[in-house]
Amino acid sequence: MLTSSAIGKALLNWYAIKGGFDSTRQGYLVEIIATYFLNKNITHMSNSDYAVLARKIQELFPCEISEAYYLPPVKKRDSRDNKSGVAKGKLVDKFRNKLTFLREAGLLPSRGEHSDKEKSDIQDLSEQDENADPKTTASLIWLQNNKEPWQEVLFHWDNTFDYRKRRILSETNQLTLNEIFLKFSVLSEPLGLNLVSKDFDKIYADKSTLFYQNWEKNIFKLIKIRKQFVVSDTDKLLLELLDTGNLEKGELPGDVETVIQRKKEKLNKLDVPIQPYVIVEGSGTTIRKVYVYINKQLFQVPTVLKAIDTCFQCYHVFNLRYQFESEHMWAFIQHSMYELRTKWDPTIPNILDIVNKVKRQ
Predict the structure, then answer these.
(1) What b/e sequence results for 97-125 when a residue is b if at least 16 CB atoms lie within 10 Å of its CB, and e otherwise?
(2) How do the domains of the chain map onto residue ranges?
(3) Where is this region: Disordered (predicted)?
(4) CA within 20 to 30 Å of 89's CA: 64, 66, 112, 149, which one?
């Protein structure tokens, strides 16, 4: 297929020289593949077909990852927002776009509104018994009425871990972020972030340590990739990891409340929930204070890196979906810095491709 066209031969030579493809070259590759099958009047590709092709791409070009070209549909039960999703990837998108063009040009019949979506198994899992045992119930009551002494808080917090995790992950009776803070009001205390860290370490042991170990070296790798490859606009945005909607800035102490109000008004207009985010007080390269804003609570933390770690832990401990405007950033941080995979991960082929490039450096 590739050796029969000039672009295909160029791709083979490019890979031999560069050892990998940037977004533009990946686009050339899927263009050749999609056109090849359409020229043979193959106008339907199943998920298994895409999976086979993506695997063959990786076999031919070992430094590529199949996930950049095909990601299977997301089942409803495996989604943080309880919605199923269609297959994604550069190969899938290219084939769909070409089919759309052929239909618009009248060369293919139009299809029903939902027929272009892959069917997925959306059968819900049965819920576990929500009834807590007497020991857990006693600790829940204690936490609802006490916030000290701290050693007692830690004891009862540990006792309620399984209950809390089950309720947060529940498909039919899930606790919202606000409900979590109401039910466990001790989270609003100055040491509340320590409780989040305890839960995170129980769920994902040693991942927080990996974050600090990987941060600097992977950032340097990302900068190196920018110089090595011709990168797309999306890739360039990742190099400014904090230049997203997940970090807000205020020059003076009095600006912090203004920043919070502005953020609230913006997201309310978009009708999206306010997820944990970072606020930096300072100007230019001078940082005086760093805060994490979580569910109407403002927590001061020592560094921006600690703020990122705290936000990430909150997303995963409380089973929150990443803020839409910074989803790419968090997906990169999750896979590259924490080396963490979960069944709820957002499926962003470009990010998986960049993570793979960083890993290979």
Answers:
(1) ebbeeeeeeeeeeeeeeeeeeeebeeeee
(2) 6-104, 134-190, 207-360
(3) 110-133
(4) 112
* Burial class of residue 193 in the structure, from the number of CB atoms within 10 Å of its CB (0-12 exposed, 13-18 middle, 19+ buried): buried
> Is the CB of residue 11 less than 8 Å from the CB of residue 28?
yes
Is there a cis peptide before residue 149, judged by omega within 30 degrees of 0? Answer: yes
pLDDT value at position 125?
A: 28
Confidence (pLDDT) at 77? 57
In the sheet that 286-294 helps form, which strands lie side by side, from edge to edge? 247-250, 277-283, 286-294, 297-301
Question: CA 240, CA 40: separation in Å to the nearest integer?
Answer: 43
Closest CA to 124 of 79, 184, 177, 64: 79
- Quick one: pLDDT at residue 174? 79
Identify residue 220 by its one-letter amino acid code.
F
Kindly give the parts of the chain with pLDDT less than 50: 112-130, 230-239, 242
Cα–Cα distance, 272 to 323 (Å, whole number): 9
Give the Cα separation of 315 and 319 in Å (integer). Answer: 6
Cα dihedral 341/26/92/3 (nearest 10): -130
What's the pLDDT score for residue 33? 92
> Alpha carbon 128 to chain centroid distance?
27
First to last CA, the chain: 30
| Tokens standing for residue 67 | 């996930």
Predicted pLDDT of residue 234: 40
